[in-house]
Amino acid sequence: MFVPRAILLGLAASLAVSLSAAQSGKNPSPPSGAKDITVINHIVFIIKENRSFDNYFGLFPGANGASTGLTSYGATVPLLETPDYAYPFDPEHGWASGNEAIDGGKMDRFDLLADSNINGQGYLGYTQATQTQLPNYWTYAQDFVLADNAFSSIQSDSFTNHLYTVAAQSAGALFISGPTTGVQSGSFGCDAPVGTAGVTADDEGNISKVFPCYNMQTLADSLQSAGISWKFYAPPEGQRGYNFSTLDAINQIRNGPLWATNVVNDANFVSDAGTGLAAVSWLVTGGAASEHPKHGALCAGENWTVQQINAIMNGPDWNSTAIFVTWDDFGGIYDHVAPPVVDNWGLGPRVPFLIISPYALAGHISHTQYEFSSVLKFIEERFGLAPLTERDASANDTTDSFNFAQTPIPPTILQTRTCPMASIGTVPFGGQAVTTNSTPFTVTLTNWGTTTVTIGKPTISGPFSETNTCKTTIGPNGSCAVNVTFSPTELGEQTGTLTVPTSYGGGPSVSVGLQGIGSEFGLNIVYPGLGFPLLAYSTGTLTKPVTLKNYSTSSLNISNIQVVGGAFSQTNTCGSTVVAGASCTFTISFKPSTASALPRTDAYYGDLVIYSNDPASPQQLRLSGSGTPVSYTPKSLTFTAQSVGTTSPAQTITITNHGTNRLTFGSVTAAGAFAETNTCSGGLALNTKCTVSVTFTPTKSGANTGTLTLVDSGGDSPQVINLTGTGN
Question: Element (H or E) spanning 394, and its range?
Answer without folding.
Answer: helix 390-394
